[in-house]
Every structure is written in structure tokens, then in C-alpha cells.
Design goal:
Mean pLDDT: 88
Radius of gyration: 27 Å
Subcellular location: Cell outer membrane
Largest sheet: 22 strands, antiparallel, barrel
Keywords: Cell outer membrane, Membrane, TonB box, Transmembrane, Transmembrane beta strand, Transport
Helix content: 10-25%
CATH topology: Maltoporin, Chain A
Membrane topology: Multi-pass membrane protein
Pfam family, one: Plug
Shape: globular
Number of helices: 11
Oligomer: single chain
Distance between the termini: 53 Å
Structural class: mainly beta
Protein name: Iron complex outermembrane recepter protein
CATH superfamily: TonB-dependent receptor, beta-barrel domain
Strand content: over 45%
Length: about 800
């Protein structure tokens, strides 16, 4: 390690003179000395002198040229340790993209806005996607036009900010007093689908005559659906998927071919749709500051978002009499899941500054409401009397946080800080209309265990998405109180930060956690840094109480059984010996080197290790005699089933140089992350049968479904009225395990290229054209066994399965 460090230092020093010669004529488009809010309480901290790794994304300077229009997508192509991919046919997860940092779960990264905690969604990811069994934060509910910059703290920070900052913190800084701007964007994929319309605006103004400000932002956008299914799935009405589970597959196929012939239909009438959902967004945000006196100011920020989505579920073919009412759908149907998602947030507080004292008192409220509607479907147990659309219920999460932060700078050496937080949370599941979940007999009565199978016309509930029943409905809450203390020291070349935090949950008891971070500048511009911390994350209310169990016809056709997800404290969980959920405990260690031999070049390399004990996951589905005795055919639970270790390294380099009469900005960054399950915790009833409790497909989601390696090389050249952006993003190999129905498939690494060129038509008007993934790169085609029998051509891994997407953007300042 010492030899490598000396080699890097010598190479950098070789170029220092050349770099210095260029600096006099370079106007730096990215100020490396910019003060950052996240990472510590010191008011003089920058990402260069921070003892932990921090990325700063100046959104104002990239939003005109970037092909990405949402926060998720921006970070996915700018921060290699960040990962977010749109999912397909995955219920609610198709409408809110899960996001991860450093290979951890969506619920192990904390999101802040202006330094204040952002609420999570009410959605639990449970469709075997990335982040399965976790609850994340909907970054795409925040309009890009409202954002000044994004700070990404790539280090454990639970002791500083709260229990869910195990992987790090993303802090979104909103725009303040600025002039107005607006943009109109139109995009289209190479296959003439997925049309994207986006209109965004931002307006800032002074507020009063004492230095106050107000900034307003809004976005109206629509992304239309895409279809990336196999073309040859037409040959067998969507492949063998529907037939493979039929009692008599050959006869089912013959029946469907007969239906097609009688109706004069072609295979195309039976085609499956597999791709991105249609999404419509309306978003509004406000950020304001109003001075009350020379030392006291009031601030208010927050916003509202309305998202409406429509995604496709698996197709039902006419031969499946248990699922299709032939009189309503002679050739079967592909159900649609529609969503209406409301996201509301508001923070208000006062800040007082005097004689190096700084006091901040605030209240932050957030709410996420997710409603479902099943459309183009039927309740087969109702026969010809079934509606074709159902309100299927939904879920809601509320969070209110009261904060007080106090800090004091002492003698230019120490900064001390302390404070407290009180947080209230509420989670609710709402039942859908009766037909969306009820299982009826042919006389219109609810099915019971004594109902004769001959009196059942078909499966109950809405096909595609069975609604929440009154038995699923609930309303739960809890509170959390915490206090922290933080002391930062800086003396010449040495910096240290020591933080401690106490947490008390009304449902999970107490915990003490701490963090120590150090930095030493051993040569001018060259430093070593490191940190060690422990963490504590209580199960979310969603993980404790989400359930969607429902009545269904048994696979043998012998009667009615119950299937779905059961709460961890349900009678079935207790009977199987599944323990009550407990907190996750973590250890986080990092060590890094920073090089800044000149004002225009900056290089960092940070290695990290994260250990999580009792990690909360969603189990595999139990389908065996252990649950059948309780009238259940398939059951899943949230449990503390595994311990994991995550190891990795981040490398970031930026360089600005004069080229001709213009300025070239070069940024190179890369990440390698490897997560391994090191231990399993099984109830005695499942000992020796790991596949049944937490199968290979679930292990795959944790260890290898996301790229272990990711790197980005960006070139941005600004000359006169022109700006050219070329960005290459490398996504490493991923593995997908289709267990129990599919096989293991390795998807080769891929390189995706973004391109845009901008021209300033006049001082206040800029035209940009370009594209994301301009060479139309896709993940490897799925093997037959993993494609749901030639329905899904690509798995939504690495960069997703949209392909090339071209755009035109007109931006205006006023």
C-alpha cells in the first residue's frame, strides 16, 4: 500500500507544473472548495478537507445538458456507488424505483433535504427486485428544477443523523434566490415508444428588504410505456408460461389454438407486454427564508407530488378457466395495475446565529399515500357478473420530526454540537372494494373452508393484483426520541470528528452508537483519512406490519387455501417459531487517500467495510407440509434471517484544463462493491433446509443482482456558445438466479454512452439535443428458463431494458 501511494504521488507531481500552467486561463465550472452541509457540524467543511468521502453534484450546471430527468437517474449515472434501475411487472415497485448506495438496501441510506430528514415511502418492495423486503425513499418525487446541488456522503453516519444512515447520506440542497428558468423536453426511444414529455420551471425572488428569499419550482411530465418482450413469444400465445402450470398443458394449448382459429385472430392478438410502466408526474416545491432580525431567520421548504402510473401484469390466456371469464375476455387478457401516489412534505423552523453560536429548531412533516386500481381484469369467481376494474386499496406512511441542533465554534480549533430529535411515525393499510379481494362461490357467497370445489367458478379477487382485504387493513404507530453530541477538532494538518448518539424507540428499546473520523494531511495537498462507527436500525413499521394474504384455489384444485405475506407477529409466524423482528446492528469502517496537488485536480480513493448483523429480509415462499396444516399453501415473512459483510472501494478524480479557447472538464469515478451473506438465522422447524427459508433467488438479490463494478468517464467541453457532453458508464457483470423455476445466468458487463450538445441561441435561450445509451445497449437476453418462457426478453438489471433514448430540450432563463 505504501509503495502504491508513493507511486501515485510521484505521478501526480510530474503533471503538477503542466496543470499549474493551464490554471490561469481556466474558469473552474465546479468549485472544489465549496462548503458542504453533510458529514459534520463544522461550518467550514468542504469535500476536500472532510475526513469522510463526499460527492457534490452541482445540478444547476448539468441539468441543461444531462439526458437524465429525475434524481434517481442523475445519481445513477454520476455516482458509481449509487444504483437504481426501473423494474417491470413488479406491482408497486414498477412505479417507485428502489435506490441503493454501496450495495446496501434502500432502507440503509438516509435522505435529507436542506439537512432535514426526508420521509420514506409507504411501499414495501416484495416482488423479488433489488431491495426486496425493504422500504426506500422516493427521490423522483423531488423535481430536479428545485435542486441546487446534491451531497452524497459515502460513509456510515448513523451516530450523526440517525439509525438508517448505515450506507451513507444523500443531502439535497434546494435552490434559493435566483432568477427564473424554464425548460421543455421531448424524448423518444429507438423503438418509437416510451415518449417522454417534461416541462419544468423555477422562479426565485427576494422576500422583503432584509435579505429574505423565496424559490418556487414545478414539473409536469409524462413517460409513456415501453414493450421489450420477445417477438417470438407470439408463436405460442406468450410462450409456455400459462400452459406450464395448467393441469393438462397440451389440451390447454389446443383449446387456445381453436379459439384463435374460430375468431380469425393471429398470434399478435395474444402478445405479452413487458417493459416500463407509463408514469405521469405533477410536482411543486418551495424554499424560502425570511429574516426576523439581524441574528434570527425563519425558513420554510417542502412540496407536493402527484404520480399516476400504469403497468402491465402477466397475461391470462383463455384456456385458464380458473382466472379468465371467457364471456368477458374470449381471448384472455393482460391485467393493468394503476397507481395514484401522493407525496407531501413540509419543513419549517428558525435559525439563530450569534457570537459563533448556531441554533436551529425545526419541525418536518412527510406523508406518502399509495392507492391501487386493478384494471382490464376480472374476479373469476363472480363469472359474467365480474366488474373489469377494481379499487384495490392502498397504504400510507406519515412521519413528523421535531429537531433541535446547537453548535458552537471555540478558539478556531473546536466545534462542539449537540441536539435532539423526536420522531412520530404512522403506517396504515386500507382495504379495497370487496370484489378486489373476495373469493365467492357460484351463488355469490364468500368461500369458506367448507365450500365444495364444484361450487367455485374460479379464483377470487382481481387478477394481476389482488386487493387488500379488511383482514389486511391496519393502522400502527410509534415514536422515537434521540440525542447526539459531536465534537470536531481542526489544527493545521490534523482533523478529527467524534460523535455519539442515543436512540430510544417505543417498540424497540434503547441503543448507543458512535463514530470517530480522522484526517491527516501528510504533504501539502495529500492526506489520509478514515472512520469507524457502529449503527442501529430498527425495523420499519412497514416491515413489521405489511401483509397481503388472500384466499386462493389450491394448486391441486382440491379446495381453498391462503397465500401471501403474513406479518411477523401473526399466529402462523408464532406457530412456525419465527422470532419477533429485532433491530439490525452494524459496524462501518473506511480508510482513504486524497490528492489535490493543484486547484484543478482532485483524486480520492476510499476503501470500506460494512458488517450488518440480523439484517431484515423477506423470506422465500414456504410451500410444504409445515404450513399446509394451517390451511396455508404459500407464506412469506419478514425476519432477521442473515448477517452480511460488504467490502468495496471508491475512486473519484476530477480535472479541469484549458483546451484551445475552451475548457475541458474530465471526471473519472469507479466503484467496486461485494456483499456476502456470512451467516443465516433459521427457526428450528426450517433447520437444514436453507432453500425453503431463504432460497438461492433471495441470496442472489443480496449478493449478485446489482453490478459489483461500476465506473463513469465524463468529458464536458465548453467553448464559446457550445457545450459538448460525452459520458461513458461501465456496468459490471451481474448474476440472476431464476430459482425455483429458472436457472443461474451471468449477464456480461455493458458500456453505456450518453451524449448531448448544447448551443446558446441567445443569452437567455439554449437548445440541447442528445441521448442516453445512444448505441442502444441492452443487458444480455435472458435464457429461456429465466424469461418466464419467452415473455421477458431482458431482465431489468444493470442499466435497465429501455435501450437508446433520444431527447431535445429548450431551456430559457428570465
Amino acid at each position: 500500500m505504501k509503495k502504491i501511494s508513493l507511486l501515485i504521488v510521484s505521478l501526480i507531481l510530474e503533471f503538477t507544473n503542466f496543470i499549474d500552467a493551464q490554471e490561469k486561463r481556466v474558469v473552474d465550472p465546479l468549485d472544489l472548495e465549496e462548503i458542504v452541509v453533510v458529514g459534520g457540524r463544522s461550518s467550514e467543511r468542504t469535500k476536500i478537507n472532510s475526513p469522510v468521502a463526499i460527492d457534490v453534484i452541482d445540478v444547476r450546471k448539468i441539468e441543461k445538458a444531462s439526458p437524465q430527468l429525475t434524481v434517481n437517474n442523475l445519481l445513477n449515472y454520476l455516482v458509481p456507488s449509487f444504483n437504481s434501475v426501473s423494474q417491470s411487472s413488479s406491482d408497486g415497485t414498477e412505479h417507485i424505483d428502489p435506490a441503493t448506495l454501496r450495495g446496501m438496501g434502500p432502507d440503509q441510506v438516509l435522505i435529507l433535504i436542506n439537512g432535514k430528514r426526508r420521509h420514506t415511502t409507504s411501499l414495501v418492495n416484495y416482488q423479488n427486485t433489488v431491495g426486496n423486503g425493504s422500504v426506500g425513499t422516493d427521490l423522483s418525487a423531488i423535481p430536479v428544477s428545485a435542486i441546487e446541488k446534491i451531497e452524497v456522503l459515502r460513509d456510515g453516519a448513523a451516530a450523526q443523523y440517525g439509525s438508517d444512515a448505515i450506507a451513507g447520506v444523500i443531502n439535497i440542497i434546494l435552490k434559493k434566490n435566483e432568477k427564473g428558468s424554464a425548460s421543455v423536453t421531448y424524448g423518444l426511444t429507438n423503438r418509437n415508444d416510451g415518449e417522454n414529455y417534461n416541462f419544468s420551471g423555477n422562479y426565485g425572488s427576494k422576500l422583503g428588504d432584509k435579505g429574505g428569499s423565496i424559490n418556487l419550482s414545478f414539473v409536469v411530465s409524462q413517460r409513456n410505456k415501453t414493450n421489450r418482450s420477445y417477438d417470438n413469444n407470439l408463436d405460442k400465445f406468450g410462450g409456455n408460461f400459462a400452459y406450464d402450470f395448467a393441469p393438462d398443458p397440451n389440451q390447454a394449448r389446443i383449446n387456445d389454438e381453436k379459439i384463435m382459429a374460430e375468431m380469425g385472430l393471429t398470434q399478435r392478438d395474444f402478445r405479452f407486454r413487458a417493459g416500463d410502466a407509463q408514469i405521469k408526474n405533477q410536482q411543486f416545491f418551495i424554499n424560502s427564508i425570511y429574516p426576523l432580525s439581524e441574528n434570527l431567520e425563519f425558513y420554510l421548504f417542502g412540496g407536493a407530488s402527484l404520480r399516476q402510473g400504469e403497468g402491465a401484469e402477466f397475461r391470462r390466456l383463455p384456456s385458464d378457466k380458473n382466472k379468465v371469464v371467457k364471456e368477458l375476455y374470449p381471448i384472455g387478457f393482460q391485467p393493468l395495475l394503476k397507481s395514484t401516489i401522493y407525496d407531501i412534505s413540509n419543513s419549517a423552523g428558525v435559525r439563530y446565529a450569534y457570537n459563533n453560536w448556531f441554533i436551529d429548531i425545526s419541525n418536518t412533516f412527510g406523508e406518502n399515500l399509495f392507492n391501487y386500481k386493478a384494471s382490464h381484469t376480472n374476479n373469476a369467481s363472480l363469472g359474467i357478473h365480474s366488474p373489469k376494474e377494481f379499487k384495490a386499496g392502498g397504504h400510507e406512511f406519515k412521519q413528523n420530526t421535531v429537531n433541535m441542533d446547537i453548535s458552537k465554534k471555540i478558539n478556531n480549533l473546536f466545534t462542539v454540537a449537540f441536539g435532539g430529535e423526536f420522531k412520530y411515525e404512522q403506517y396504515r393499510i386500507k382495504a379495497g372494494e370487496e370484489g378486489s379481494w373476495m373469493h365467492y362461490d357460484r351463488f355469490g357467497n364468500p368461500v369458506t373452508s367448507s365450500t365444495h370445489s364444484s361450487d367455485i367458478l374460479g379464483e377470487g379477487g382481481a387478477q394481476g393484483f389482488i386487493g387488500f382485504s379488511p383482514e389486511n387493513a391496519l393502522k400502527k404507530d410509534r415514536n422515537n426520541a434521540s440525542g447526539y453530541a459531536d465534537i470536531a477538532f481542526k489544527n493545521g494538518k490534523f482533523t478529527s470528528d467524534l460523535a455519539g448518539r442515543y436512540e430510544h424507540y417505543s417498540d424497540f428499546g434503547n441503543s448507543w452508537i458512535g463514530k470517530l473520523a480522522l484526517r491527516y494531511e501528510y504533504l501539502s495537498g495529500f492526506a489520509i483519512r478514515g472512520a469507524f462507527s457502529n449503527g442501529f436500525r430498527a425495523p420499519s413499521l412497514q416491515q413489521q406490519y405489511f401483509n397481503n394474504s388472500f384466499a386462493s384455489i389450491s394448486s391441486s384444485g382440491s379446495g381453498v387455501v391462503t397465500k401471501g405475506i403474513f406479518t411477523n407477529d401473526s399466529p402462523l409466524a408464532r406457530a412456525l417459531g419465527i422470532e419477533k423482528l429485532k433491530e439490525e446492528k452494524s459496524i462501518n469502517a473506511s480508510v482513504g487517500l486524497t490528492f489535490k496537488p493543484s486547484k484543478k485536480i482532485y483524486i480520492t480513493a476510499d476503501a470500506y467495510y460494512i458488517k450488518v448483523n440480523n439484517r431484515i429480509v423477506l423470506t422465500s415462499e414456504f410451500v410444504n407440509s409445515k404450513v399446509e396444516s394451517y390451511g396455508v399453501e404459500g407464506a412469506r415473512f419478514f425476519t432477521n434471517a442473515i448477517d452480511t459483510e460488504t467490502k468495496g472501494i471508491d475512486v473519484v478524480a476530477t480535472y479541469n484544463v484549458g483546451l484551445g479557447t475552451g475548457i475541458l472538464n474530465v471526471s473519472l469515478s469507479g466503484n467496486y462493491t461485494e456483499t456476502e451473506i456470512v451467516d443465516y438465522h433459521f427457526p428450528k422447524v426450517f433447520e437444514g433446509d436453507r432453500n425453503e427459508y431463504f432460497g438461492p433467488d433471495q441470496t442472489n438479490i443480496i449478493e449478485s443482482l446489482s453490478p459489483k463494478t461500476k465506473a463513469t468517464l465524463g468529458l464536458n467541453y465548453n467553448i464559446m456558445k457550445w457545450n459538448l457532453l460525452i459520458r461513458n458508464t461501465y456496468f459490471g457483470k451481474v448474476t440472476r438466479d431464476g430459482y425455483p423455476y429458472g436457472s443461474v445466468q451471468h449477464h456480461d458487463p455493458k458500456l453505456v454512452t450518453d451524449f448531448s450538445i448544447s448551443y446558446i441561441i441567445r443569452k437567455d435561450l439554449t437548445l440541447t439535443i442528445g441521448g442516453n445509451n445512444i448505441f442502444d445497449v441492452f443487458p444480455d437476453k435472458q435464457i429461456y428458463e429465466n424469461s418466464y418462457y419467452n415473455v421477458f426478453k431482458y431482465a431489468p438489471v444493470q442499466m435497465g431494458m429501455t435501450g437508446a433514448n433520444w431527447f431535445t430540450k429548450l431551456s430559457m432563463n428570465f
